[in-house]
Amino acid sequence: MPKQISNTRTSMSTSNRSSSPSNVNTSVMNENEVKFKIASSYCKLKETREALIEMEGIPAKARNLQMNLLLGRLYRITKHNRSAIACYKDCLRHCPYIFEAITALAELGCSAKDIVSLFPQTPMRSGRPLSDCLDSSRWLQRYVEAFCCIASNDYTGGLEVFTELLQRFPNNVHILLEVAKVEAVIGKNDDAIMNFEKARSIDPYVVTYMDEYAMLLKLKSDYIKLNRLVFDLLNIDPIRPEVSVALSVLWETKDDRRALTYAEKSIQVDERHVPGYIVKGYLLLATNRPEAAVAAFRGAQELRPDLRSYQGLVRSYLALSKLKEALSAARDFVKAMPHSAKATKLVGDVYASHSGSRDKAKKYYESALRLEPGFLEAALALAELHKVEGRLDDALSLLSRYLKDCTDDSLHVKLAQVYATKNMLQAALSHYQSALRLNPQNEAAKKGLERLEKQMKGLDPDAPEDDEENDVDDADIDQDD
């Protein structure tokens, strides 16, 4: 805004007093609003520094709710966390229902008590008794507690509170999505899929967290639903980062390079979109680029550390044979989640990667199972350890406990591998077939069944084929096994 306009502001408003109110509003320009518009434009252009300069030019007392929200985002991007906290607190003083500010404060380390203390303590002028007003605000306090639990990696506590809120607000899409996301992170995949689908049935145009849903469908090898989801998302809003991540997940089985391009595009659209970094990291691991994968998982951790970023980081370091760094990352995860079976199991994975420390790995896997007796991944890892060290009966005894209540194809694959090692080929065949009934796309089951059929014909499954091309294929299969 040219300086002369602000100098002539008074004369313009005086000369227009006789005019209509709309003319007066047009002529009088608010300099702070103009700075806010300029900063918003810089944000769209990804020019954060210039946007921050404009916003800092607005006096603190003159900032409205929208201005504080934008300034808070800019401070978070530039890692000025204290200033970001101050802005988000001002947002909640204006209005306690700014969910973005609640989430941000929780992620920035504020306690639930501190956040709730910002809410207005007097009831609204609705004529209702004070007790009614206080009762109606309790759900908001519980909402704050849920996000603070998630931010501190207490996923179980957060899920309990969200489930309680869902009982009060049934079919609320926002809470359904939060519940589904937490379930996806902690491995309750079937429950998460059910809640994502329920949210979509209520609001077919929802895009939030749909990349998390896409990852679950890929994990379940449900490519029909995955294709339909991506098709719908492209018709709703192809620019959103969630859509790019979903596209990346879809292309992962067909073209790694194209999948990686979509993952990077999601980060370009929103550099704070954590699933984009996680998908990118695992794609880089799959394409044998562990050093680049480390950088991707580090990027996710800087934004919001969670189970998947820690797991990815440990696997990347193990792929680089950096056992010290892998162990350090796993122990950091244990510090962040001291009572987590998944964190404990991750330390066991590091020890299991080295033959000289398998006894330590066994202790950590057993500890993980004590923390969470139904934790199948820890049971599978411990069974593999038993198998490698020749304790086949121990492996079978452990895995058989999970057969009654578990419908996971990976359990049947592991049982089949142990039975095949014991030369109990018919039992191995039965479990490979069960795995493929549950998941026809299970590659480990397909390859295992192929080897088993050779064994049942009296052939050596590891013997090289006559054809040179088959030599290469068999070598690849053996390496995967």
- What percentage of amino acids are in beta strands? under 5%
Low-confidence stretches: 4-28, 129-134, 467-481
Largest sheet: none
CATH architecture of the domain at 32-118: Alpha Horseshoe
Q: What is the ordering of alpha helices and beta strands?
A: HHHHHHHHHHHHHHHHHHHHHHHHHHHHH
Number of strands: 0
CATH superfamily of the domain at 32-118: Tetratricopeptide repeat domain
Q: What is the CATH third-level topology name of the domain at 32-118?
A: Serine Threonine Protein Phosphatase 5, Tetratricopeptide repeat
What number is the mean pLDDT?
Answer: 85
Shape: elongated
Fraction of residues in helix: over 70%
- Total count of helical runs of at least 4 residues: 29
CATH class of the domain at 32-118: Mainly Alpha
- Class by helix and strand content? mainly alpha
Please characterize this protein's 3D structure.
The protein has helices at 3-7, 9-15, 21-27, 31-44, 48-56, 65-77, 81-94, 99-107, 112-116, 130-151, 155-168, 173-186, 189-202, 210-219, 223-236, 241-251, 256-269, 274-286, 290-303, 307-319, 323-336, 341-352, 358-371, 376-388, 392-400, 409-421, 425-438, 443-456, 468-480. The chain is mainly alpha-helical and 481 residues long. It has a domain at 32-118: Serine Threonine Protein Phosphatase 5, Tetratricopeptide repeat. Helix 7 (81-94) runs antiparallel to helix 8. The protein is elongated, with a radius of gyration of 28 Å. The relative contact order is 0.03. Residues 4-28, 129-134 and 467-481 have low confidence and may be disordered.
